[in-house]
Amino acid sequence: MIVRLVTAALAVALLAPATVATTSVPLRDLRPSQQPPSPVPPGERDRVIAAATRYLAESPRTITASTSPRSAGGVHDFSSEGDYWWPDPQHPDGPYIRRDGMTNPANFVEHRRALMRLSVQVPALVSAWKLTRDARYASKAAAHLRAWFITPATRMNPHLRYAQAIHGVTTGRGTGIIDTIHLVEVARAIEVLDGAPGWSPEDKRGVRRWFGDYLAWLTTDAYGIDERDAKNNHGTCWVMQAASFAHLTGDEAVLQDCRTRFKTVLVPQQIAADGSFPLELERTKPYGYSLFNLDAFATVCRLASTPADDLWSFELPDGRGMRRAMAFTAPYIRDRKSWPHPSDVMYADAWPMRHASLLFAGLALHRDDYVDLWRTLSADSDVEEVVRNFFIRQPVLWLD
């Protein structure tokens, strides 16, 4: 009941015009003990509409607008290169070598940038439509979605066979599947867009067909299986994506598999007794990776939990679960300087952001302090590394 009340308050604060209350039970009529605090920052509505209005002037740009000379794929195939792979100083013309945590600025990133642009613009446009019911925002979002997933000349093929390639080593890897975490909030926006002007039943079917095809590839291809079985944040992000795309396409079998995998694989393999993520702590960016993995864990819980199978409350016999993971990390979001582990080798000062884990866990676990902390943090960044690793930006899409 508490979660329903808080969620209702969030939705009212975001969706209602400043001078109009739109709730069946006016909050002012609730007893003081029933008054759910609204954690939404006062400027959130203005933030969304300002961004979406800027995006009205920008045309869709898909992966077909740029190609990599090193990609083994075609014009419709997504291509990227492993971030931490560099030319070998001892063998400049030979295979690349790995430098963990150090991003090679010469690698091909244009397809990833195009995907990030989609993930920034479409959720903002759909959020603005949900807030205002202004058809301009819905129509522009629909144009992006048709270009990416339907139009033959510009659509992306529903696979990632050529993602995170390594020069001289491989034309693609299962590791590259993490590049489509940016479709998670796009998928959420598509669900919200249903029924909007400019979004036809044919559009709805066509886009869901693309996501269904991609989900089938994700769950059956050898690259997909490799990524599913990764033991760190890559495995978490596979489950998050599978849950997101299954939620969009109505694939209950995959959703059930995600719930099972969360309980039998993700929690046992990744969460330590103190609630930390040891596999992220041993990386060269332990703080950023821990926050990133926690957001992915929380998004899985938000997407896949049901009243009968609540992933938020799931715990192993020794107490490991989302409550403990949040309890470990939240203090270091509140006070970055108290982080007891090594500092990140790059972008150490770019975190934290307004992490979805705080909002989702705050609502689900009845922790007002998490939500209060969430609302104080930055919602947007112009640092590309942050944009790449911060994939839930529009809370209005996630509130019923």
Range of strand content: under 5%
State the secondary-structure class. mainly alpha
Write the H/E string, N to C. HHEEEHHEHHHHHHHHHHH
Q: Largest beta sheet: what is the strand line-up?
A: 1-4
Task: Say what oligomer this is.
Answer: single chain
Classify the fold: give the CATH topology of the largest domain. Glycosyltransferase
Tell me about the largest β-sheet.
Answer: 2 strands, parallel
Helix content: 40-55%
Which residue ranges are poorly predicted, with pLDDT under 50 across at least 5 consecutive positions?
A: 1-37
Q: Give the overall form.
A: globular
Specify the CATH class of the largest domain.
Answer: Mainly Alpha
Radius of gyration: 21 Å
How many domains?
2
Number of strands: 4
CATH homologous superfamily annotation of the largest domain: Chondroitin AC/alginate lyase
Write a structural description.
- The chain has helices at about 1-15, 45-55, 110-130, 135-150, 185-195, 200-220, 220-230, 235-250, 250-270, 280, 285-305, 320-335, 355-365, 370-375, 385-390, and strands at about 80, 85, 95-100, 160-165.
- It is mainly α and about 400 residues long.
- A two-stranded parallel ribbon has the order 1-4. Strands 2-3 form a two-stranded antiparallel sheet.
- Helix 11 (about 285-305) packs across helix 13.
